[in-house]
Design brief:
Strand order of the largest sheet of chain B: 1-2-4-5-3
Structural class of chain B: alpha+beta
Strand content of chain A: under 5%
Order of helices and strands of chain B: HEEHHHEHEEHEEHHEHEEHHHHHHHEE
Largest sheet of chain A: none
Helix content of chain B: 40-55%
Number of strands of chain A: 0
Largest sheet of chain B: 5 strands, antiparallel
Shape of chain B: elongated
Radius of gyration of chain A: 21 Å
Oligomer: heterodimer
CATH architecture of chain A: Up-down Bundle
Radius of gyration of chain B: 31 Å
CATH superfamily of chain A: Amino acid/polyamine transporter I
Order of helices and strands of chain A: HHHHHHHHHHHHHH
CATH class of chain A: Mainly Alpha
Distance between the termini of chain A: 43 Å
Number of helices of chain A: 14
CATH topology of chain A: Amino acid/polyamine transporter I
Number of strands of chain B: 12
Structural class of chain A: mainly alpha
Strand content of chain B: 5-15%
């Protein structure tokens, strides 16, 4: 039966902002307080978070400028007009592996954390297999449906954060935050690096801008998304430090989940809130993973133009599962995370921004040409 | 033309001879015994016959308004002698005069002429009478529909405390009248279709011109015109034929027995489909929020309705997740229960031979069985099943040590919650999804529950009802439609029709500007 398409405007600016938040808030925030606390002392990590947020805002602004330039064109098609086909193939391959790795990383993280907090016997292999299957199901639907899922899930995640913050303050000790400003700048910088890893992912605007009602608002959407994420990180970080202190946060694997564990509701009608917290958190991690998978599929479709979506998914899914199962232990897993972060820096931020410099002159010429032809 | 037992060919228009016409009708209908034929001579002496189906046509109307009138009244301007002058040829003038005379004499409102046999047959079979007059080229079709139909009663499936008590009946005319009585707008449109290759059912598309998006109406008409089936059974087949995704368990078209619900939907810019022969009429397009809304929400104070809607949302979640959560918590995450509760649950489960999974499936299946049996049973025995079921589920199963009392509580709460959902069709879907979530919970615990929920949400965001995203206005986010979603703002704030329907006329009310100064 034919489906008519009226009644669906593309994403509004607000929805795009929510999509960005869904992408950024993933597994990173669950470990973020620990990695920041490792390099900073007492409460000084806030500077790392804010500075990293500033850098991310700048990068997000630049990347979304590239996206705006591309306009209604797919980013990769736009890139072809700037740097030619061979180099674009390289970009597509890089971004493909980055998005795929991103998806695998999130999946493995889910499996690891589930293993620790939800199951004692179920093997990691099965946990991640089911997750990948659900991701494939999500991606095989319509892409606008996938984006709608972000809008549907984000509020429940935000509600969880609000609950944690509201009930967590019982254990908050102001003394844990003191003394201020004792970390050397090197420590702050190292902390910043960790935070930036958790703020990667706004590159999706390059691909999803075509869904926007008003693409020229993309920078605003991206920047507000990043700003909200930074705010969430800051709130969780100060709560973790206030409750566990810096030393405590350093030694807890998943401080954010432990934060939820501390929560006690009046009347004791519910215990081990962290299970529920994590279960709800799975929804936002799912969004991150699914969008990564979707964009990997998008990049692959550029590389192999004649393939159908079904075949592409069938090819990507096993690869994603293999990557996800590759790390044997936590340290290898961390290495995978670092590799993906470097790739994100390279393919998601540096390359598009360099395209911006490339594209400047050409774009002007094209515009002039268009003006002439229009006149 | 002599009828010698040879089958008659279907002519393009009625025969000149009444006898031939009657023979043809008898032959094509197979001379059924509910076919009423009354032949008589009109006042001028022309032979005439009235044909109708007994039980469908109102015999009083035919007797009083047709036959007695035609027998008594005389005054024909054209006589038979005029015709004999041009023997052999049917005199057009004479025929037309006869028609005019016949139709003038009948004091009937609903009357038309036709010379198309298919039309005549369909009209007779749908309860009207056909009048054949000797030498007249056309047949007079008399609106004499009048069969026994159910009186307007309170809707069985959707009763309200406060609200109108009338419900749709099986009769299409009554139903359209019920809507007309509520909307006296000249722009209210009823467009009729005849659907069903054999059943030839009347289907009416109702909408308000000037409010509704014309693209939506065109799409509805297009989809209805594609229906080619022996008989669209009730409104169900039509619903399933025209909905966007037929493999989805979620209803994408709302069915209702309440005229006020249809009238309200039309005023919002939706389209109604009224089907003859069923009290369940269709409303489209809908979103998932339509299932937790009830017309009562608008009759009551906005605070009460908002709270009640919230309650229904909770009911949906309870009906969907409670048994699954029970399984997940007892089988995988004992720690989530507070220690005191955990002890008491464990205490009651002492001696229960099954794991929680088996226990839950057993009891939920029993409940569904009971519910299905309750629907089938005659009303007088329906009470019995309630008592028996209550005893079996409540008392005996626990005493026999098959299930724990906590399980009974879970099953009972789930059942009550699913009855609180205003839409029956949606409640069935929830019942189905509940079992899926129970399976997911028994394999993967809470993780399984949340994955099942994600899968359901993926399915929902990909659904559309006539092009409208099913999860609107949650996603895509249309904040202005939130005024009448989970909560309902005061009437004065509901100033616009749903944005998602993209109506032609968006404003619903005009606020008088605030008066300046004191009165």
């Amino acid at each position: 039966m034919r489906i008519n398409s009226y009644g669906e405007k593309p994403l509004s600016t607000l929805e795009m902002g929510m999509t960005i938040v869904s992408m950024l808030v993933g597994v990173g925030v669950l470990t973020l307080p620990r990695s920041v606390a490792t390099y900073t002392s007492s409460f000084d990590g806030w500077m790392s978070i804010l500075l990293a947020g500033g850098i991310a805002l700048l990068a997000g602004w630049l990347v979304s400028k590239v996206a705006v330039r591309a306009g209604n064109k797919n980013f990769l098609d736009y890139s072809v007009t700037l740097v030619g086909r061979p180099f674009t193939y390289l970009i597509a391959a890089l971004q493909f592996s980055y998005f795929l790795g991103f998806c695998s990383y999130e999946t493995r993280a889910i499996a690891n954390i589930s293993k620790q907090y939800l199951f004692d016997r179920t093997p990691v292999e099965y946990i991640s297999l089911v997750f990948i299957l659900v991701v494939v199901y999500g991606v095989s639907g319509s892409r606008s449906g996938l984006l709608r899922l972000n809008v549907l899930f984000l509020p429940s995640v935000l509600i969880m954060i609000v609950i944690v913050v509201c009930f967590g303050y019982r254990w908050f000790e102001f003394g844990n935050l003191k003394p201020f400003m004792i970390t050397p700048p090197i420590g702050i910088a190292q902390g910043m690096k960790e935070v930036i890893y958790s703020l990667l992912g706004f590159e999706i605007i390059l691909y999803y801008i075509v869904f926007m009602e008003r693409p020229e608002k993309a920078p605003k959407a991206v920047m507000s998304g990043i700003a909200l994420t930074v705010f969430i990180y800051l709130v969780i970080y100060q709560l973790v430090i206030g409750i566990f202190s810096n030393i405590g946060a350093m030694n807890i694997v998943y401080p954010t989940i432990e934060l939820a564990k501390e929560i006690q509701f009046p009347g004791n009608f519910f215990e081990r809130f962290e299970s529920l917290f994590f279960v709800i958190w799975i929804m936002t991690i799912y969004n991150t993973a699914a969008m990564g998978f979707d964009l990997a599929n998008e990049c692959l479709s550029f590389l192999f133009k004649r393939s159908t979506k079904r075949y592409r998914l069938l090819i990507i899914a096993p690869i994603a599962y293999l990557i996800c199962m590759a790390p044997g232990d936590m340290s290898q897993f961390a290495t995978l995370g670092n590799m993906i972060s470097y790739m994100a820096m390279l393919s998601g931020i540096l390359l598009p921004i360099s395209l911006l410099m490339f594209g400047g002159k050409k774009n002007n010429k094209e515009e002039k040409a268009n003006d002439k032809s229009g006149a | 033309m002599e009828h010698n037992g040879q089958p008659l060919e279907q002519p393009s228009k009625p025969f000149a001879s009444v006898n031939d016409n009657l023979a043809f009708i008898k032959q094509s209908l197979g001379s059924p015994n509910d076919l009423l034929i009354r032949t008589f001579r009109m006042a001028e002496g022309e032979k005439a016959a009235v044909v109708c189906i007994e039980g469908l046509a109102d015999k009083q109307v035919i007797q009083n308004q047709v036959i007695s009138q035609l027998i008594q009244v005389s005054g024909s301007h054209f006589t038979r002698t005029e015709r004999t002058e041009n023997t052999g040829q049917m005199d057009d003038e004479y025929s037309r005069g006869l028609e005019a005379q016949t139709t003038e004499q009948l004091s009937l409102q609903d009357m038309r002429r036709s010379s198309d046999w298919d039309d005549i047959m369909l009209t007779i079979l749908s309860g009207d009478a056909a009048l054949f007059v000797e030498d007249m080229e056309e047949t007079v079709l008399i609106g004499s529909k009048g069969w026994k139909s159910r009186a307007i009663e309170e809707p069985q499936t959707e009763s309200l405390i406060r609200g109108p008590r009338d419900g749709f009946t099986e009769d299409l005319r009554t139903n359209t009248a019920l809507i007309r009585r509520r909307i006296r707008d000249p722009h209210l449109r009823f467009e009729s279709y005849c659907i069903g290759r054999r059943s030839r059912k009347d289907v009416t598309v109702a909408y308000i011109d000037g409010i509704v998006n014309p693209m939506l109406v065109n799409e509805v008409k297009r989809r209805i015109s594609t229906i080619d089936i022996d008989d669209p059974e009730g409104s169900g087949f039509i619903e399933q034929w025209i909905q966007d995704h037929y493999w989805s368990p979620f209803p994408q078209i709302l069915n209702t027995e309440r005229p006020d619900k249809v009238a309200g939907a039309l005023l919002q810019g939706r389209v109604g489909i009224l089907v003859d022969g069923t009290p369940f009429q269709l409303i489209l397009p809908i979103t998932i929020a339509s299932f937790i809304q009830s017309p009562e929400d608008y009759y009551q104070n906005w605070i009460l309705s908002s709270v009640l809607r919230l309650l229904r949302v909770m009911a949906v979640f309870v009906a969907l997740f409670l048994p699954g959560m029970y399984i997940a918590v007892l089988e995988y995450h004992h720690g989530m229960l507070p220690s005191k509760l955990a002890f008491s649950v464990a205490g009651t489960r002492e001696g229960v031979p099954f794991p929680a999974v088996v226990e839950t499936f057993l009891m939920e299946a029993t409940l569904e069985l009971l519910r299905e049996a309750g629907v089938r049973l005659p009303k007088s025995i329906g009470q019995t099943i309630g008592v028996v079921g209550g005893l079996v589920i409540g008392e005996a199963a626990v005493t026999a040590g098959i299930v724990s009392p906590v399980m009974v509580v879970v099953v009972a709460v789930t059942a009550i919650a699913s009855f609180a959902i205003p839409s029956y069709g949606f409640a069935i879907t929830i019942r189905l999804m509940r079992f899926l979530i129970m399976i997911a919970a028994s394999v993967f615990g809470l993780y399984g529950v949340v994955l099942a929920m994600i899968v359901t949400c993926i399915h929902l965001v990909n659904l559309r009802s006539f092009g409208i995203p099913y999860t609107a206005p949650l996603a895509p986010l249309r904040l202005s439609d939130w005024r009448d979603l989970i909560y309902r703002l005061p009437v004065i704030r509901l100033s616009h029709r749903p944005e998602i329907l993209e109506t032609m006329d968006t404003k619903r009310l005009t606020k008088k500007s605030k008066r300046k100064g004191t009165p």
